[in-house]
Design brief:
151 residues, mainly alpha, 5 helices, Phage terminase small subunit P27 family, Phage_term_ssu_P27
Amino acid sequence: MARGRKRKPRAHKLLAGNPGKRPINHAEPQYNAPKEYESPKWLDFTAQRMWNELAPKLVATGVLKETDLHNLEVFCKAYSRWRLAEDEIKKYGITVLDNNNSLKKNPACTVANESLKQLDSFGAKLGLDPSNRTRLMGNTPDQKKNAFNEL
């Protein structure tokens, strides 16, 4: 049986300004931003490029913590795998011939679809899409103050 919406970590609530005004769990473990976040050597070139683009931004916004590095690794690898699969689809098409000269779905289509699911899932954990970024970050300091909040 479903338990409802997943709980938002304390840090995410604080970043969002605790819009629901629910009690904040002060006993939750606190983790620091990684001191070094150089891309792992086992990642291929495309995944490392994505890592090097995202890691500094996620650390600067306070989203990426030491315990979240694996989420970024999986996201970057899924991105690289998706790009590789899309190149294969572009090269060979959506359908390919099997050993019996029958058309079948290009296996790269399955890889692309699975990689997109991982991108969606792990990207959401890192706040990499507009709706999750809004949920994660809430109101930013540069937004104008709402005059109705003071009433």
